[in-house]
Amino acid sequence: MSIKMSVSVVIFTFLSASVIAFTIMSRYIIGPFKKLKRGEQVIIAMSFVGIISVISFAVIQLLLRILV
Fold this sequence. Notes:
By secondary structure, the protein is an all-alpha fold. The protein is built from 2 helices and no strands. The chain crosses the membrane at residues 6-30, 42-64.
């Protein structure tokens, strides 16, 4: 496996771990989603959208490195 490929795999692994940590944090530390105020719900939802976009970018980059 080349150096570029291993760096992509490590970055994707760290991103996956950060999503798991963020999900656990938002569930147990912040509390249930329904009990939050409307503005707090919007902030959490936008955070998830940002995380999903970063992960999708990482997946696309990883697939392009594998296929090309």
